[in-house]
Amino acid sequence: MKLSYFPQLKVVHTSTTYHGQLYVPVANWLLMIGTVIIAAVYNNTTSLGNAYGVCVMFVTFFDTCMVTLVAILVWRIKPYFVLLPWLFIASMDGAFLSSALLKVPDGAWFTILLAMVLASVFILWRFGKEQQWFAEAEDRFPTTHFVKTNDTGDLQLTESFGGKVLSRAQGFGIFFDKAGETTPIIFSQFIRKLVVAPEVIVFFHLRPLDQPSVAPADRYSVTRLAMTNCYRLVVRHGYMDEVITPNLAALIYEQVRQHVISRALDRDGEKSSTSAIATPAAAETGSSIRAPTPAPSTGSTSSRLESLERAFNHEVLYIIGKEQMKVKKGTNVVRRVLLETFLFLRDNTRAKIASLKVPMDKVIEVGFVKEV
Question: By the 8 A CB rule, do 250 and 358 touch?
Fold first, then answer.
């Protein structure tokens, strides 16, 4: 699932000590159903043993090949040191495998069929996700590509997107961001089609790590973007950390508020240091010119804090994308069949909104269509 070879399933991490301890409820149910069916179909132990034998020999043969690749690519062992041991062991594995394949008509066909079905799902899902990424890349631009600030200080779409002035809606808009690097597609679709932007905008991105927990001091990263009152919050979390909670908006508000205050304090500290250095330098040269007094930054900081508090107290909205995909016209038959199958799986598997634990009356799904 992390490598995008399989649809998203619910995964429960059961241990903070052993990182590999997972519980996948759907997989457990499928294993139970499959065990009952196989026990009913294979009415004798000979056929079941044939299926098991082919499975074991395939695994042994593939393990030999995979270890060889690891030795060459990861351990950096010279290929001629690896070739002879691989040839010797693979020949023995191949001999056992060829004898096991004679039992395919007598029950071993099930193992090969199941492997082909799973491999087809893996390859199909990866192919579909790559086509989806290519289509989404067309909309991944910085905010300055499609929105700018005009002479009066209002936000306006660039000329290539119509040049309309954006209306400002009161409220605190949290846009869920998949990539965490460029402008979220949902935001670009939202303002280009509705021509409106919330008073305060936060791009919210979750970045899971392969560890149980992340310390609060290292968990949150806030940056201010070029647009007025627009921020990005990246949350680095472990698999045991609970981030999406009913009070998520309060957490985001507090992190952005702390960022605004800390930035102002850093700027004031830098200006104070510059003034302290400039004054002794002037004294040493005997100059009567006084060091310039730094202009306080409290004005811009207080306006940002006021806008942030006003928007948060007025209304909080969680805005997520509902991306519909359709196959382009003129696509060849094979590619169309593959993509239609992928889209069918995608539309009938776990959606992102299923993981949200925020108040549903504050969630807005914005639908848009992409061609692949």
Answer: no
For the chain, the straight-line distance linking the first and the last C-alpha, in angstroms and rounded, comes to: 21
Domain count, the chain: 2
Residue 192's domain comprises: 145-278+294-371
In the structure, what pLDDT confidence band is assigned to residue 90 with cuts at 50, 70 and 90?
very high
In the block, tokens 């998203």 appear at: 8
> What φ, ψ does residue 196 adopt, rounded to 5°?
-150, 150
| Residue finishing a domain among 82, 108, 137 | 137
Cα(57)–Cα(35) distance, rounded to whole angstroms? 21
Pair 188, 212: CB distance under 8 Å: no
Q: 199 with 221, same domain?
A: yes
CB of 362 within 8 A of CB of 316? Answer: yes
- Positive or negative torsion for Cα 327, 328, 329, 331: negative
Q: How far is residue 225's CA from residue 232's CA, in Å, rounded to a whole number?
A: 7
- With contact defined as beta carbons under 8 Å apart, do 104 and 90 qualify? no
Report pLDDT digits (tens) over 155-178. Answer: 888 888 888 888 888 999 999 988
Residue 236 to residue 217: CA distance in whole angstroms: 10
**Do both 162 and 68 map to the same domain?**
no
CB 196 within 8 A of CB 364: no
> Does residue 357 carry a pLDDT above 50?
yes
pLDDT in tens, 257-286: 999 999 888 777 666 665 555 444 444 444
Q: Does residue 354 sit in the same domain as residue 314?
A: yes
Nearest to 140 by CA among 85, 192, 194, 186: 186
Residue 370 reports pLDDT greater than 70: yes
pTM of the model: 0.76
Q: Looking at residue 295, what is its pLDDT?
A: 43
Closest alpha carbon to 180 in 145, 144, 223, 138: 223
